[in-house]
Amino acid sequence: MRRYRSRAFVSAMLTAMLVLAGCSGGTNSSPAGDGQSGGQTGNPGSSAGGGAEQVTLSMHSWRVEDAEGYKKIIQAFEAENPGIKIDFKPFKATEYNTILNTALQSDSGPDILQLRPYAPGISLAEAGHLEPLDQLPGIENFSKDVLAASTGKDGKVYGVPLSLNSTQIYYNKKLFEQNGLSEPKSWDELINTAKTLKDKGVVPFAFGAKEGWLLSLSHGVIAPGTYNGNAFVGKILNGEADFTSPEFVKSIQRMQELVPYFPENFVGLDLNDTRTMFFTEKAAMFINGSFELEGLQKMNPDLPLDFFPMPTDDGKTVLTTWVDGSYAVNAKSKHKAEALKFLEFMASKKFGELFANEFKRISAIPGVTTSDPLVNKMAELSASSSTPYLMVVHFAEGNPTTKQTLENALQGMYLNKLTPEQVSQEVQKSAASWFPTFKK
Amino acid sequence: MGVPEREHVQPKRKSKARWLLHLFPLPAFILYTLFVVYPILSAFTYSMYEWKGIARGAFVGLQNFLTLFQVEPFNKLFWNAFGHNVIYFLVEMVVQNGIAFILAFLIYRKIRGAGFLKIAYFMPRLLSVIVVGFLWKLILNPNYGALNTFLAKLGLEEWAKPWLGDPDTALLAIILVNCWFGIGFAVLIFLAGLQSIPEELIEAARLDGAKGITMLGRIILPLMMPSITIMTIFTFIQAFEAFELVYAMQGSMGEPFHSTDTLAVYFYRLAFSGSGGAGDVSIGLGSALAVVLFFIVASVSAFSLRVMRKREIQH
Amino acid sequence: MRAGIGRRSLQYLFAYLFVLVALYPIVLMVSSSVKTNAEIFTSPLALPKTFSLDTYRKLWEVVPFADFLMNSVVVSVTSVLLITVTSAMAAFYLARFSYRWTGLLYFFFLLGLMIPIKLGIVPLFLLMKKLGLLNSLWSLILIYTASGIPISVFILTGFFRTLPVELEEAARIDGCNHFQVFWRVLLPLIRPALGTVVIINFIHAWNDFFFPLIFIQDEALKTIPVGMMVLFGEYETDWSLLFAGLTLSALPMIAVFLIASRQFMEGLTAGAVK
What we know:
The complex is a heterotrimer of chains A (440), B (315) and C (274).
Chain A: H1 2-5, H2 14-23, H3 30-39, E1 55-61, H4 67-80, E2 84-90, H5 93-105, E3 112-115, H6 119-126, H7 144-147, E4 160-161, E5 163-172, H8 173-178, H9 187-199, E6 203-205, H10 212-227, H11 230-238, H12 246-257, H13 271-279, E7 283-289, H14 293-299, E8 305-308, E9 310-311, E10 317-323, E11 326-329, H15 336-346, H16 349-359, E12 362-363, H17 373-384, E13 386-388, H18 390-393, H19 402-414, H20 420-432
Parallel strand pairs in A: 1-2, 1-3, 6-7, 10-13
Antiparallel strand pairs in A: 3-11, 4-11, 5-7, 5-8, 5-10, 5-12, 9-10
Helix pairs in contact in A: 10-12, 10-19, 12-20, 19-20
Chain B: H1 3-8, H2 13-21, H3 26-46, E1 49-52, E2 55-59, H4 63-70, H5 74-108, H6 114-122, H7 129-139, H8 146-153, H9 170-195, H10 199-207, H11 212-223, H12 225-240, H13 244-250, H14 263-272, H15 283-314
Antiparallel strand pairs in B: 1-2
Chain C: H1 5-33, H2 37-42, H3 54-62, H4 65-96, H5 102-114, H6 121-130, H7 137-162, H8 165-173, H9 178-189, H10 191-207, H11 210-215, H12 224-234, H13 239-273
């Protein structure tokens, strides 16, 4: 038997011993598995009710970082509705779609789910997975623009909007003051500001190109300054202009013009890296969303933080906004009545105030103010001088989506593989493949 | 269980035992068919349907396959990803398996501390891919990462790079991490192959005057061909199904600029949509890609297995 | 084959250089976990100046690590057990008897080596739902068992084939039936191959994050890798905490391997005496 000894390289693993010992009792293993299946017929979240009046609703979200805050909000609801318990389960944003889609496709899934805004979320309604909410008390308080994020092609509303997102340029007040700078009022001033900072040895923009979504997000801030906001958006939507129009090409060129003011190795930096650069005060500006505010303040409570909206070429300012995820009810939920009750709560002003103060976000519910001056400033600006985040609101369709196409092409531009003109051509090509107005 | 019972029927062994014999493969067969074969076959049928989001539509035959290979950008993305899988395979063969062979050979030639070496090389394989991806992302971080810091300490600042952000290095970086991860397993497979060579044969060859390269090329390599073939097949399958590490390090877009996209990542994106929520789900196209991927892997591995078994019979 | 001293030391250099390559990132992971965040940024390579287990204490507070650990153990051990027994039985049949269908059956199992099982996730989810196994550790055990069978059958069948037939014939003449031949004679002989099967499958079941992500929703039923994913999402910038999480999730597997590998060395020497 010496010949086989050599193969013994893992022979005496302790685990092997465990297994061998275990074998003696378990030759017939599959019935054990089947037997167990009989004992585990409980459906995960939705059927915990049983005979009692107590109903437990499962609620899925992609905001892992909000778990603590939701707990407080849910407590407020449960106090008023003793018969209903909410089981809030957040998943990592990047895996959320996979988990949700798999569950919905097999007719299970949570009772209440957070819905991606605009096209991606609406596609769930089209597949028949969502309950229409037109009759929900409180839904009438939202404006049509806000509801658009969760309105299907059939005209029905499928989600209660949660918050407005805005994107802007955050800046470090102290670093600006130390270098004698103030909020720029035009593109040229912005470039000069960046130049001054760079000369003084401060990184002007905490910016990274590793994560595509941050590129379209940053473009969403820069571009409306170039094409002066809403007028151009209207032209795109009715076909008078397209993505090869000079205004749009110029917006891409400006993204390139900023390169000298990005940190070293910016093509390899992700959100984590750039956020760290900004809150550790190594960089002076940070182009990002309202959803970063709470985190920034938490990471460095002493950060002298402010933001400015994008100056436009016609001398105004503009804040890019869109509606963030709304909440919807699963059409296959066993506890629809209770789930709708919770959504009714989410459409109330009380919820809006709890939400805005807890998360430092702009509530989608009209008239809600918070204790945070920056959030209030965002809310005011989004009411007075906002423009839609074009790629999310209108161009998140196609396969790959036009938004993804822009992200990928911008990444290509930063890697010197594409020119700004080529970027806009790619974007146009993608949009022309599905956008009705461009499709001839 | 049941053993004593069967002992009682020993006299009738011939007829009874023959029937019982067919029960041996049954548990494995049932579990494997139910939880592997059946789901995959159902997934394959999905490729023949039109899908609207996640709702199944009409039967469309081979339309999804045609789209995958004829319509831009799907065809471009397919060949782009396919090329990366090929690179993945080649680099792993050369770097991972090449180094592993040398290391296995050194251990075989009675290097001191062989036991420790085997454990040490195998150690990375014990980590979850999630952990490996995350750990290396931190090590390769352009500004705070250990690798660039290390290069700077050596005075090689100009060598420092945003490894995972530069399309010229990102794919290679991921593959090398994969080599780091898989080298220990390859060492063990090769070592088993080496140790299975009967010592008499080596001794006989030595008496005939073979040494060094001749010994290696004429005697050792041919005799350990089975383990080399197996390792090649494993590497091939692994390279063409490369997903988890790419996903853990670069996300589902194969960033930057699709320079790290692989077929399995592309599948994931088509079938489950990209990161951050944007993107249409296309289960039809995704399933079509899955079918193609399966046939690539299955045909190549089945072919090599056949060749190997023929060769084994010859011995 | 007398190697010169120079060549010999070159060989040692090469072999031990790779020890460094293999172990350094792991050492870095462990050492960073006891550093403070500031220390990780300023001197990522240096050994920790201060030794503090505070991050571990914090980690223990923010995630139910003991639950994760228990779940991982239950899932891995049970599926490895099932894989080993079922595959060994199937491999015995495939290697020792040749009916018209054995070749086909073997190929059928081998196909599984080439199936990326993730492609079937949606039908698999439906199946688990029908069986009422969603949000149950059994869903993981069954999928790991089923997907581990092909490679195990492959390895074990190959190994059974190398065993001389004479042994069984002798046993049969002694009056053993097929089952007894399998259990008493062959199984002990294929122990080395069983070890391989056990280790490969154990590592796979222990480290997989994809299936628990989809099948398990209860926090209390999560396995270590998924639990850690949540941690990565929630504490993105607390590097020290993340390194502690990474270390803690790798530690049990490393410990098992180290204990087992000592056993393995003893096994080798014991075999040599025989």
